[in-house]
Amino acid sequence: METTLRGVGVSHGVAIGEVRHMGTAVLEPPAKQIPKDEASREQGRARQAVEAVAADLVARGNLAGGEAQAVLEAQALMAQDPELLADVERRIAVGSTAERAVYDAFASYRALLAGAGEYLAGRVADLDDVRNRIVARLLGVPMPGVPDSDEPYVLIARDLAPADTALLDPSLVLGFVTEEGGPTSHSAILARAMGVPAVVALPGAVELAEGVVVAVDGSTGEVFVDPDADKREALERDAAERRAALAAASGPGATSDGHKVPLLANVGGPADVPAALEAGAEGVGLFRTEFLFLDDSRNAPSQEKQVAAYRAVLEAFPEGRVVVRVLDAGADKPLDFLTPADEPNPALGVRGLRSLLDHPDVLRSQLRALATAAEGLPVYLEVMAPMVADRTDAKAFADACREAGLHAKFGAMVEIPSAALRARSILQEVEFLSLGTNDLAQYTFAADRQVGAVSRLQDPWQPALLDLVASSAEAARAEGKSCGVCGEAASDPLLACVLTGLGVTSLSMGAASIPYVRATLAKYTLAQCERAAAAARATDTADEARRAAQAVLSGE
Known about the structure:
PEP_util_CS; phosphoenolpyruvate-protein phosphotransferase activity; 556 residues; Pyrv_kinase-like_dom_sf
């Protein structure tokens, strides 16, 4: 009998297939004591296992490329953390086996993350995956991971570590469903980049029986268990209609009455450019430069390395717009040379622009590298600062850009409610705004963007969040300046219409989402988008807002 479950849809498309579960996690090693004279040998085994796992993660990253590569390299650094390794060796010195010492040391670090306000809870899955891989190597058992199968299937897991998500084979993995995670988790972002339908934060997902047929709708977040023939036919028909609409839509983003809405791509570096070009991106709306800095958390990349990476992206969009976000470090992206190690709540501490203003040499080096990279190119370079709180922040950033000799537009990201509420003041110092809806939702609702348990508050359809978007867009319009959205909200085709109706002037998203947004925008007039936006803001919940907008656009 068919049943319907609902999670959070994070990657468009429909997948129908049999359930296959993620490989079982490594069991807890026995707590047995070793003689003192074996400690040195066990410590050597632990170091070798750590280095082997780190090397494997880097190799997987090299194969995957793009954002996945940066995520996996960050995970490799996690495996090699000197404090963790020192803790492992200390535990071995007092009698633990290598595998038990690794297990206990990681458990201790896990507890520290939970005690830090759980802001880093989204990295617990990454930490557990590193631990499991090291313990598996020490025990000589197979690594936990994606199941072996010759037939396509729908993958079910409690959560997916980046090392597994990055190398999913789309010809075999039709889609995936996880019990944990959120719409802005690493796995969700990578799923969208791959174009694999995905649903996260689905209660009871791991209880689905192996081999049962499910239909996964990555747009609505619905999972239909054992769907009947009529349901399958309806879903496949809807999927075919979506594909036809995608094929028919081309060219610049615009509403049906010709109101232009440039559709830009979010990229992490040169490896993400081909997908953006293939999707017809009109430029880059968010170049996440922090991925350049994750190779070595102890040292900033050289000027030469930065120039080469920036120029490769700028050259790909001649006459196009490329918006570069300067280094956004801190919180869940700590860098030893830049961010404090002992903050009680890193999410509310020295991160983003605050870190750069505390280390002006790092900011100056990056701005000069951007200036050098753009020399002689016809590209429209725009540079923006993350985590701008007020006009003082905006002025400090604009002054730094001018002092570095950067010939570009300077902008501010709106990720803090104060910036949205005082956007017109901020626009006295900068030339454009870019709304980072992921962090803006997090700070508006006090809801960690990486914690699935509060995913309803991370929903970009929340009317309070729409109010802040409208406030920012209205301020930009009053000042004759632009206001784009570069958060994951832009990747939702229906929400893209609402954002357009709120006055947003450009939308930036993962490349895989661009065709969906382009096709949907082309179906409606600007006036329809404005009516849908007003209807959504008049509600009290995210679900009500979504339904109200849909009703307006469908003519109900």
